Amino acid sequence: MAGNNPRRQRENDRHRDEIIEAAVQTFYQQGYGGASVQEIARAAQFGVGTLYRLFPDGKDGLFRAMQERVVTAFENELAGVIEGAVDEAEVIRRYIQAAARVYERHPREMAVYMKHIAGVGLDLSKGLPEDLARRFEALVRVASRAVRAGMNKGIFRPMNPAAVTLSLRAMINVWFLGYVEGAWAIPPTQAAAMVADLFFRGVTPGMNETDRRTMLPSADDSGRE
Q1: What is the pLDDT of residue 219?
Q2: 3 state DSSP class of 157
């Protein structure tokens, strides 16, 4: 069995990755509903039987694997994000940067997922299986705890912490998804500084009107005709 054969396990892992990659591309091109297991297997250059051997749940299992790939990537990016941060504002800045790297490195996965959950609201965890939703919410708590602690310390203005955290998540998704969908050409890792700037202008006490400059990308910045 593969579990007792490291070489076979590595081969299976490689085949799984190749099939997931083909599934992501097929979902991206045709949508989840329009993709078939046969098309995914053909794109991966594997037989349908091999696909079902590695993914017994077929298309549903592949979609879950795609979701888990993104959640795991976010976990890896956020690992140690609090350590070394000088204050809660720095934690938020690092959180935005981590999200930017996930969007930039997994643009097709994010585009497929966002289209699949369209209409369910701003909470991305609502479209995840229960175990992945718990993992994702643990990541969100990094930001929500920083928001609440920052308010308690006077770093941020006193507001509804849950609403502020939700606003932060919405800003991240709107800005970075704009790049994924081709609305503008500013990569998420570059846009992260602008997202942070806009967020802090809204929550930092003592900000005067002169400092509140609009930093949305102009038509010239978008790189699109």
Answers
A1: 36
A2: coil
pLDDT higher than 50, residue 211: no
**Quick check: pTM over 0.90?**
no
DSSP summary character for residue 26: H
Whether 1-56 and 60-222 share one fold: the answer is no
The C-alpha angle 88, 91, 95, rounded to 5 degrees, equals: 145
pLDDT in tens, 111-127: 898 888 765 556 677 78
- Contacts with 156 (C-beta within 8 Å, 6 or more apart), sequence order: 88, 89, 147, 150, 164, 203, 204, 205
Token pair 């890896």: residue? 76
CA atoms of 64 and 135, how far apart (whole Å): 14
Tokens of 74: 């976010």
Domain 1-56 class?
mainly alpha
Q: Which of 121, 166, 117, 120 is nearest to 141 (CA)?
A: 166
Cα angle, residue 58 at apex, residues 74 and 114 outer, rounded to 5°: 40
Q: Which residue has the tokens 């643009």?
A: 107
Protein fold of 60-222: Tetracycline Repressor; domain 2 (1.10.357)
pLDDT digits (tens, 9 = 90+) for 36-58: 999 999 999 999 999 999 999 99
